[in-house]
Amino acid sequence: DDRPGRQLADVVFRVVADDNVCPSCELWSNPATWGGVKPTAGQTVVIPAGKHVLLDENPPALDGLTVDGTLEFMRRDLNLTANWIMVHGTFRVGSEDRPHVHQAIITLAD
Q1: Which of 1, 12, 47 is nearest to 28 (CA)?
Q2: Order of strands across the sheet with 62-67?
Q3: For a disulfide at 64, which of 31, 44, 102, 106, Cβ 3.0-4.6 Å?
């Protein structure tokens, strides 16, 4: 692919994937993960089954978050705020083999 920026995106993705052992992840910060527009404040977000999203930035405060697929925190300080979070899939903040040694603040606010 010869599109401008594509090679840089591939390099950045490989670095992220190597750090998080997540070659199939889609980055939260990438608008393409969300069909072209990132989630905005007050929105209800659904991560569908089969989708693996890597939280690589602090998203705006959400109304709600449903995880039917996988939401994984990148290994960095992160904040996630929502009025509610429902998990039917996987919500991962580190693992037994690779614990999350950074700050992960999850706030349920109404």
Answers
A1: 47
A2: 44-47, 62-67, 78-87, 104-108
A3: 44
